[in-house]
Amino acid sequence: MTGISSTNYILAAATCATVSAVVLKLSGSSNPLSYITSFKYVSDAAQILQEGYAKYKGAPFKVPTLNRWIVVLGRQHLEDIKKSTDDELSLIEAANDSAKVDYLIGPEINSNPCHISVARTHLTRNLGLYYPDIKDEVHAAFEELLDLKDNAWKSVPAVETVREIVCRTSNGVFVGLPLCRDHDWIDLNSRFAVDVATDANILNMFLVPLVSKKLPNTAAGIARAMKHLDPIVKKRLRCTGEREDDWSDKPNDILQWLIDEKQESSTGQLALRVLTVNFASIHSTTNTFTQALYNLAAYPQYVTVGPLREEVDTIIREHGWTKEVIALMRKVDSFLAETQRLEGVLTSCKRKAMKDLTLSDGTFVPKGTHLCVPTCVVHRDSAVYDNPDVFNPFRFSQLSDDEGASARRQMVGITQDYFPFGFGKHACPGRFLAGNELKTMLAYILMSYDVKFEDRVSRPTSIHWDLNVIADPTVRVVFRKRTCN
């Protein structure tokens, strides 16, 4: 079981916030209000975004963060983002400015983002082929980590447990067995995203690229990954050269797809790609499912009896576990989509203007401007959703019924009303894998377990820090083998 303490998150974030505030103050900002607002933005970004959205009625407005101003666009600008080219509005450069990928992971990740094209092409196309492995790893991980006895309840830390299950399942697709079950590999990838975020905050504060050479956490993670992958990469390269035409048991995972691209072949290069894919996926999927697990525990009527469990029981008992069957679970899909609507990202569609440009409504955007869309505000807008602050688990399946089972209302669908995975050509290429993992995990819990909170009845409030919505990592959830049928 991995053990990233919530104290580490809070301490690192508080330290970064405090030092950043001092840096801003010493920088001689002529606007003390922006200094105060930037500090407030760290802990109350959702309220600031809501106030700006209401005040400017969807027109662009800007907010000061700890190290830069960000221009917040309205949902009507999503088409501008969709139609823009990468040399006008760049997702990669916006992400690099925030996460300092060039310094911490390597400049080749952005200069040649081949892992994105590989994910976009192969993850979706091969989903039916590797779905049995997803299902098997989900089932095995739950059984091993919970290790339930008879009819007894067992308490587990929710975030840590979910993180390990997600990490094992995702790495079954990223690097395959047996590495996806290796405890050190799981621990490494669980920690790597936190290490990169912490080190990136330090670089953002001091603006000294050379500091990156002094930061030990990210470099240590890369070294650990190379140690794990080196024998695997060497064996696969040998098999690719010797048995390419008759390799009947050729692995079907991202590592092999990257090798087959023949753009990179060293262990170091491939390790950086695999770490980046993990960095981009593990913690977001973990957070989404933990939020959904909290909703299950908070609303037991959907677990014990009722349409959610009935849907899973009926479909699985009639058809078994397949990718096509998971696609039939519209209420499960809706439960997860509603969870993402209320407890998903604060902003999305982050871009950096690479040149001066003018939006369709005449808004002028200077070169270098950072842009985003306030996803959380749109998702809670009463003009978009009825009773937007109420958790309605079947909201999206009911909308699909009204539209004739529209795929646009699925949790991986993207519209101007719902876009937790981004919008346009840069929408998350791994969302179909994530969607199948999440639905399989939720369906397996409903089929196999009863669940409740250890010491509470109501749902825990999410932690808001900067642009992150974090499931409370201190909460424990109690499982037992399912008793009601």
**What is the domain tally?**
1
> CATH homologous superfamily - what is it?
Cytochrome P450
Radius of gyration, in Å, reads: 22 Å
Q: Give the helix proportion (percent range).
A: 55-70%
pLDDT averaged residue by residue: 86
Shape: globular
Tell me the structural class. Answer: alpha+beta
Strand order of the largest sheet: 1-2-8-5-3
Task: Give the CATH class.
Answer: Mainly Alpha
Describe the sheet with the most strands.
5 strands, mixed
Number of E strands = 12
Beta fraction: 5-15%
- Per CATH, which architecture? Orthogonal Bundle
Residue runs with pLDDT of under 50 for 5 or more positions:
1-30
State the separation between the terminal residues, measured CA to CA. 31 Å
**Count of helical stretches:** 19
Indicate the CATH topology.
Cytochrome p450
GO molecular function: heme binding; iron ion binding; monooxygenase activity; oxidoreductase activity, acting on paired donors, with incorporation or reduction of molecular oxygen
Binding site for heme: 428
Pfam families: p450
Keywords: Heme, Iron, Metal-binding, Monooxygenase, Oxidoreductase
3D architecture notes:
The strands form four sheets. This protein has a five-stranded mixed beta sheet with strand order 1-2-8-5-3. A three-stranded antiparallel beta sheet has the order 4-12-9. Strands 6-7 form a two-stranded antiparallel sheet. The protein has a single domain (6-481), classed as Cytochrome p450 (Orthogonal Bundle), CATH 1.10.630. 56% of the residues lie in helices and 9% in strands. It has helices at 6-26, 32-56, 78-83, 91-99, 101-104, 108-111, 114-125, 127-146, 158-174, 183-206, 216-243, 254-261, 267-298, 307-319, 323-327, 330-343, 375-379, 395-402, 431-448, and strands at residues 61-64, 69-72, 89-90, 154-157, 348-353, 357-358, 364-365, 370-373, 449-453, 463-465, 468-470, 476-481. The chain is globular and about 60 Å long. Strand 10 (463-465) and strand 11 form a beta hairpin. It contains 19 helices and twelve strands. Helix 1 packs across helix 2 (32-56). Mean pLDDT is 86; it is low at 1-30. It is α+β, with helices and mostly antiparallel strands and 485 residues long.
